[in-house]
Design goal:
alpha+beta; 11-stranded antiparallel β-sheet; 7-stranded antiparallel β-sheet; 6 helices; 21 strands; globular
Length: 390
């Protein structure tokens, strides 16, 4: 009997030892992640991102593509409003595309290298590698890390990241504020490393046309230097003056003088009809305001041609919200940096007086303030998404 007991004890010890050899600690997993990053060539992921910063959660379907060294395509779709925007980075620059409205913003920015994105694998892994006080647990089929949040807004403090044990693919991300409230949540339904993309997968014009399932009129985007340091974007060609080494027009552009161009009389008529049907979008007011802030006066409408609206707010912070719907799709964007708003990427510019500009559902928004924190700008922008025009 004693001999049987000893045999059982030995067998159990061996089993425990073998099981223990199969487990990885935080150090081993971090080393593996470092190797994955060094060999990262491409990936594609699909999932759902939910923003909990407003009164009602905002949910977006996210599809993200990456190809080494710095090509990105992020498709963000608001299922509720059936609005799709694409954030694209290729050799020509950074673009925000709204194919359904034939609208393009071009940013002079190194996005996303200058900021983190909850749906980008590089952002998640770098935040794990850089946080020496990281917390680590093994949970079923996943490794779970809790690390510092590495995003532009100070309100996002911590994040919890679930990675598949076998492939290290991301499965879920929760980003929380200082009160441990989840503000941003990303759940991946699918994530594949080594994805093979077609040659023009990151081409601007291809993405515009493929999303519309029809050829576009001969209209793209122009970037001109303005005396004030702004860039002027219209539906003409891309000016390659900021790319002195470039000898060919950017993808999807047409030869021209920089003025508005048309592919045919039919295309011109289509735009004329669009402009004739373009009416006031109403006054879209944010559902969120910082504590102690109120509307200063009734909205002003200084420019009826673009149906522009100006709303001033005062109190703890002072800022101006401007809204317009440009008929000719012409926009002026100051040189600045891309700012992740969750549902799209905006352009943040200025130092003493900051301005945040973005485009959504055909409306151009601009928040200008000398004292409003960036985190508050983001919350206000997000609260405008599902608000109807009054």
């Amino acid at each position: 009997m004693r001999r049987i007991t000893w045999v059982l004890a030995i067998v159990m010890s061996v089993a425990i030892l073998v099981a223990g050899c199969g487990k990885k600690d935080a150090t081993a997993v971090v080393q593996d992640l470092d190797k994955v990053m060094s060999k990262l060539e491409s990936y594609a992921g699909i999932g759902t991102m939910t923003l909990h910063s407003g009164q009602q959660p905002l949910e977006y379907r996210v599809e993200v593509w990456y190809q080494n060294p710095s090509y990105y395509r992020i498709e963000l779709k608001n299922e509720k409003k059936d609005i799709t925007q694409i954030v694209l980075r290729n050799k020509e620059g950074v673009f925000v595309l709204t194919p359904s409205l034939n609208k393009i913003f071009r940013f002079q920015s190194d996005w996303p290298e200058n900021q983190g994105q909850v749906y980008l694998y590089q952002t998640l892994v770098r935040s794990i590698l850089s946080d020496n006080s990281r917390q680590f647990t093994a949970d079923g089929e996943d490794y779970v890390f809790e690390v510092a949040a590495n995003y532009q807004t100070d309100s996002l403090v911590r994040q919890k990241i679930w990675l598949n044990k076998d492939s290290y693919a991301p499965k879920q991300v929760q980003v929380s504020d200082s009160d441990s409230k989840v503000i941003v949540e990303m759940k991946f339904n699918q994530f594949d490393f080594g994805k093979k993309f077609e040659q023009d997968s990151f081409d601007m014009q291809r993405n515009m046309t493929s999303m519309k399932n029809a050829a576009l009129p001969n209209t793209t985007v122009e970037v001109n230097k303005l005396p004030t340091g702004e860039t002027k974007e219209t539906n003409a060609q891309v000016d390659n003056s900021e790319h002195p080494d470039s000898t060919e027009p950017s993808s999807g552009t047409t030869e021209g003088t920089g003025s508005e161009t048309t592919g045919s009389d039919a295309g011109a008529n289509d735009r004329s009809n669009d402009e004739a049907e373009l009416g006031p979008f109403g006054i879209i007011e944010p559902s969120y305001l910082p504590e102690g802030v109120a509307k200063k006066d009734e909205p002003a409408i200084p420019d009826s041609k673009e149906h522009a609206v100006v709303i001033r707010y005062t109190g703890t912070y002072n800022f101006t919200l401007m809204e317009s719907r440009p008929k000719d799709m012409e926009t002026g964007l100051p040189i600045g940096e891309g700012l992740n708003l969750g549902f799209t990427v905006g352009q943040l510019s200025g130092e003493e007086q900051k301005a945040l500009t973005w485009m959504y559902d055909g409306v151009k928004y601009r928040i200008v303030s000398s004292d409003l924190p960036t985190a508050e700008m983001v919350k206000i922008a997000q609260s405008l998404v599902d608000q109807p025009g009054k």
